[in-house]
Design brief:
34% of the residues lie in helices and 19% in strands. By secondary structure, it is an alpha/beta fold. It has two domains: 59 residues, DNA polymerase, domain 1 (Orthogonal Bundle), CATH 1.10.150; 273 residues, TIM Barrel, CATH 3.20.20.70. A ten-stranded mixed β-sheet has the order 3-4-5-6-9-10-11-12-13-14, with helices on both faces. The relative contact order is 0.12. The C terminus is likely disordered.
């Protein structure tokens, strides 16, 4: 007989915890105590919640568990970057990348198993869409990170399109930033999206975290070839939505732009970017392409990326070049989870 799995407490908001303690007829203040144990002290079991009575711990344990789980695999780069693999339900895996850099340490978090967007340059898209991650599975990537105590920044730029899983992602962001959660400043968190309209508006209105839009070409027809989502979520419409919001204060708006040799790296594209983004308070992050198997795209040479950056900056669009990290372990998401998934399936045959 198969044992019934218990529901994880990790990933629950304070409001959800209040609902649980009310249902179990516990004192109302118990919800904040549980939140403190989960997110402040990061306990691994309900038994560790010692300011709850034994009776209440037993009540809670009958149906719930903390739900934290360690990575099942890891790859380490010569530059200190570590790619972790987490289980995400039966036969599913997601990647989380830890990136240390002098006085900063960033974690790149996944929101889905696979992805529907199928961007030409992305290994995760080649997997197809498998499942949305729950808030518990999103938060666990942070909570169970071996280097948790060193973290300074979180980026929702891992596997999946965050705004295609907007309910669970917003819950996870609430837990990261709420005083009863990890209590991090929204300025420490950036969400990356192709720009799904409905989810984008909710994110802008319900969160104060930074936003990064995956752009990659300012020319709609070419962007459609690189990013099929352009058909439904035009970059021009995305920019139109963004113009209605104020990015002049604490919240930062950036656009991610991978440069592909001979594809989108000439002065023509720089001029089109300037036209598209004119008047927006934003920056461009230029990214060198990490080659992936089966994709006929090459990265632009660094000297040409520098020229592209200098042209944009000299014409009033602040541009930076994102340092490539973990290239020896294919830190761009999708490689390790694809291999693990294929290995798991082979074991079943």
């Amino acid at each position: 007989m198969e044992l019934q799995s218990k529901e994880p407490l990790l990933g629950k908001t304070l409001e959800e915890l209040q609902g649980i303690v009310k249902l179990l007829d516990m004192p109302a203040f118990t919800a904040k105590q549980i939140a403190s144990w989960l997110y402040g002290k990061r306990v691994r079991s309900i038994d560790e919640m010692t300011n709850l009575s034994l009776k209440n711990r037993q009540l809670l344990s009958a149906s719930y568990e903390v739900g934290a789980s360690d990575p099942v695999d890891a790859m380490r780069s010569v530059d200190g970057t570590v790619k972790y693999l987490y289980g995400a339900g039966k036969a599913h895996f997601v990647e989380t990348v830890y990136i240390p850099d002098e006085d900063r340490a960033t974690i790149c978090v996944s929101s889905q198993v696979g992805c529907k967007m199928n961007c030409k340059f992305c290994m995760t898209g080649k997997q197809g869409f498998k499942a949305n991650l729950s808030a518990a599975q999103i938060i666990n990537q942070i909570n169970s990170l071996p280097e948790y105590d060193t973290l300074t920044n979180v980026v929702m730029m891992g596997m999946g399109e965050p705004l295609d899983n907007v309910d669970e992602v917003l819950k996870a962001l609430e837990i990261m930033t709420a005083p009863w959660g990890y209590a991090w400043s929204p300025k420490r968190i950036t969400l990356s999206s192709v720009g799904l309209a409905k989810g984008l508006k909710r994110f802008l209105e319900e969160s104060e975290c930074h936003l990064a839009i995956s752009l990659h070409s300012p020319i709609p027809q070419q962007r459609r070839e690189l990013m099929p989502a352009e058909k439904a979520f035009s970059i021009r419409e995305v920019v139109k939505v963004l113009r209605d919001y104020d990015f002049s204060k604490q919240r930062r708006l950036s656009f991610e732009y991978i440069l592909f040799k001979g594809v989108n790296d000439s002065e023509l594209y720089a001029k089109e970017l300037l036209k598209l983004l004119r008047g927006l308070d934003c920056r461009i992050n230029l990214i060198r392409f990490h080659a992936i198997p089966g994709v006929d795209l090459e990265g632009t040479a660094m000297e040409d990326i520098v020229k592209f950056r200098d042209y944009l900056t000299s014409h009033g669009l602040f541009s930076t070049i994102r340092a490539s990290r973990g290239e020896d372990i294919f830190a761009a998401c999708g490689m390790l989870s694809t291999a693990k998934q294929e290995g798991f399936n082979e074991d079943l045959t």
